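User: Structure please.
Assistant: Input sequence and predicted structure:
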Amino acid sequence: MRIVFAGTPAVAIPSLAAVAARHEVVAVVTREDAPLGRKRVLTPSPVAEEATRLGLPVIKANRLREEVTERIAELQPDLGVVVAYGGLVREPLLSLPRLGWVNLHFSLLPRWRGAAPVQHAVIAGDTETGAAVFRLVPELDAGDVYAELRRPIGPDETAGELLDALAVDGAALLADTTDALAAGTAVAVPQQGDVTLAPKLSLDDARLDLTQPAEHVYARLRGVTPEPGAFALLGGERFKLHAARRTTGEPPLAPGAVEARGRRVLLGTGTDPLELVTVQPAGKRAMPAADWLRGAASPTGLVLS
């Protein structure tokens, strides 16, 4: 089967590899090279680099405009596949492939439709999530579902760790679905349940409210790790919290208060303290929390807000 694959970040690479191993990928559509790093060097997307490694034709476009549609039409694809491309597929491109388009989405639809489903699931305290392959339609993530998988969310799992796992498991699900579509045996069913939305997270979403209960603070920290990256303010500057642990049986601390207890560095919340593991003060590298506290100018009386 002739397939056009659209994807951009590293999370889409397992899907590209799985589909390309079973079908003819006639083009890979990905976003244009973007400036990265302090020197802002124009860098191909992870999917562009993988497509080049696999010897597949690459179309770089941030918008699927008329010229892109015309290039894809010339390829006469049977199916379009989307995995985290970062742009919308609209008509007439949506109806161009003989079998339409399918999308691998990292949630149990219709829960968490949108750009950041894994992050929102973790922040909300969900205990289960999964992935779904659905038919692409004009409405956001609303098409009928061909297949899904389910998995628990670990109590200490970050959004990044969960997304990496779903990327691998979802790739197999997607490849099986493309096989079924090629064989004419795929069956899609309408989504059922309450719709919740998962818009892209901003930096404001990554700021921790330390007056909330510990479980809410910890869920948000995990949900915004590694991106946009959890933080609080220290002396008016952004203080990043890369990793933390829950505690039990510790005397409470005032929200935001930092205190060394034995070899551990604890952070107060609205209920139990959290143990800080890895932190990054403004203008410095990431470091163990204990090293940071030892080197702090005033290690007592520190308060994050």
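The chain has a mean pLDDT of 95.
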